[in-house]
Amino acid sequence: DFHVKHNTKRKKMDNTDRRSSAAKKVIRSLESHPLRAAGILALTAAACIAAGCLAVPEKPGQIPAGTPETEAAVRSSMSELNSQDSLQNNTAAVSEKAAEEQRSYGLIIIPPGGKVPATDLDVLFIHAHPDDESLDFGCLMALTAASGLRTGLVTFTDGESGLDLFPGRPLNGIYPDHYLKGRELAEVRSTELEAAALKLGVDLLVRLGLENHPYNSIKDELPPAEIIDEWGGKSEITEKLRQIILLTKPETIVAPEGPGKAREHFEHEAVGFIVAETLKSFEPDDYRAPKRYITSVDPRQQHLYPEAKEINAGIRVKNADGKERSLRELQLEALMNHRTQNDAVNVGTGFLPKYPAEYYKIQYWRSNRSWDNLLQSGLY
To answer: What are the angstrom distances between the C-alpha of 144 and each of 121, 125, 152, 178, 373?
Structure first.
């Protein structure tokens, strides 16, 4: 059975995955600084006073997803989130709360055009829009954070062409009493993304701010190649992503799949294609190349991927607030931060609890440790 070991320091990687001891000393020196390295802070708008750590039990309990106990826990969690008091407490001042949690837990936010700091991540998650991270990666993101790993998230767009749930969302705090669109919607969705990233334990959030194309019906679909051209072209975008990978040095990349068996949002496919092409630019024996690359599988289309690997959504861990929850519950709480988006607060929270796991396809695996071995040892 999977278990998460108590970990206040990053677990040692196997010999094939270790970086130089000198680099490790530099990273540890930066991380131990109370201001998380002033040089990095000077490049970011957010002030990070101290890096937080998650309280993880020695041997957390576990209940299988899909059981009455799990579903009852999810319903209880969702009921609390949807209550009026909770709504006012958790969404009326999301911006202020996100700023406070940045200071408490050390989320570094790089806005479009900002300089990405050199750091040392374990896992880099990459997706197209705010809320995609919670929908597709939520369980794995919560698990990596609870395992004491450093994680980053790159979001290609700010979601300005999405559909606002008005009037079916809060009408206070960051949420005005009118329909949001364009830059105004993008600003609110970016704040929602920050809150969700904090819930899932992200250390570094990078927003690329590329154009988000409307998708209201099949007639709006565009070929990924056209999307990529409008984003600046394949060469420009892959080089930008390559530089982020070189600066953050992740061991594992998690992304959507490019055009494949499943039917996906065309911008998801464009992001998946860019990620795949970027990773192809590294030679297999390049020490700077991520050693693992996996893509998410929609549970509703998992039958198309019989080889897909699973993460039990019922695994229970403790979050920064000290409360024990299942990975699925943490994912649902992250989704509820995306109050403007129907796909998050209604669709996602409606269908995800019906599935016992989160699913991934291994694209490549250049490590002598298997998927199961990594999970059993807390991923690293």
So the answer is: 11, 11, 11, 38, 15
